């Protein structure tokens, strides 16, 4: 494990881009907004120095409308994996507005996704609003065990909540 990560941003994982497109479409006609997070390429078995965008962090309390999305900045964690932002433009315009440029200060890449939210309906920009290249990479995503459970586990816990042994949901009684 290296102490310092390379600052080179190699691209975005295909699975992450699929999530962004789906989340943007699901939020339509309101804007979608999140923060992009990256993993070291070596953790993804890529034999190059750099980082790959693998996650989107959505901040609790994000408010969105068809014209804008706003984040409570005090809710954003000091995240060492943060590399930029993503948001949608329901009107389909794939260029940053003046308001967008005012929020592009943190991170090195900012993705704008436009309706109808297909593979050709997004662009990446730098902090100044200049379009930049962001390659979509086919990588094996790291295992996240935060939600490491099955439907059988849920059913078992729900069943346990109805007997005298307690269980995960027993506090609901």
TrEMBL record:
<keyword id="KW-0647">Proteasome</keyword>
<dbReference type="GO" id="GO:0008237">
    <property type="term" value="F:metallopeptidase activity"/>
</dbReference>
<dbReference type="GO" id="GO:0046872">
    <property type="term" value="F:metal ion binding"/>
</dbReference>
<keyword id="KW-0645">Protease</keyword>
<keyword id="KW-0482">Metalloprotease</keyword>
<keyword id="KW-0378">Hydrolase</keyword>
<feature type="domain" description="MPN">
    <location>
        <begin position="10"/>
        <end position="131"/>
    </location>
</feature>
<keyword id="KW-0479">Metal-binding</keyword>
<protein>
    <submittedName>
        <fullName>Proteasome lid subunit RPN8/RPN11, contains Jab1/MPN metalloenzyme (JAMM) motif</fullName>
    </submittedName>
</protein>
<dbReference type="InterPro" id="IPR037518">
    <property type="entry name" value="MPN"/>
</dbReference>
<dbReference type="GO" id="GO:0000502">
    <property type="term" value="C:proteasome complex"/>
</dbReference>
<keyword id="KW-0862">Zinc</keyword>
<dbReference type="GO" id="GO:0006508">
    <property type="term" value="P:proteolysis"/>
</dbReference>
<dbReference type="InterPro" id="IPR028090">
    <property type="entry name" value="JAB_dom_prok"/>
</dbReference>
<feature type="region of interest" description="Disordered">
    <location>
        <begin position="64"/>
        <end position="87"/>
    </location>
</feature>
<dbReference type="Pfam" id="PF14464">
    <property type="entry name" value="Prok-JAB"/>
</dbReference>
């Amino acid at each position: 494990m290296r102490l310092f990560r390379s600052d080179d941003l190699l691209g975005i994982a295909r699975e992450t881009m699929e999530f962004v497109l789906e989340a943007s479409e699901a939020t339509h006609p309101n804007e979608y907004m999140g923060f992009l997070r990256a993993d070291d390429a070596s953790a993804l078995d890529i034999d190059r120095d750099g980082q790959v965008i693998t996650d989107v962090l959505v901040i609790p309390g994000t408010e969105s409308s068809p014209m804008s999305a706003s984040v409570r900045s005090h809710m954003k964690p000091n995240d060492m994996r943060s590399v930029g932002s993503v948001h949608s433009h329901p009107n389909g315009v794939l260029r940053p507005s003046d308001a967008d440029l005012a929020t592009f200060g943190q991170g090195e890449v900012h993705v704008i996704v436009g309706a109808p939210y297909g593979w050709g309906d997004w662009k990446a920009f730098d902090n100044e609003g200049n379009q930049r290249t962001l390659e979509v990479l086919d990588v094996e995503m790291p295992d996240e065990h935060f939600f490491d459970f099955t439907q059988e586990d849920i059913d078992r816990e729900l069943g346990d909540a109805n007997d005298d042994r307690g269980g995960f949901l027993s506090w609901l009684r």
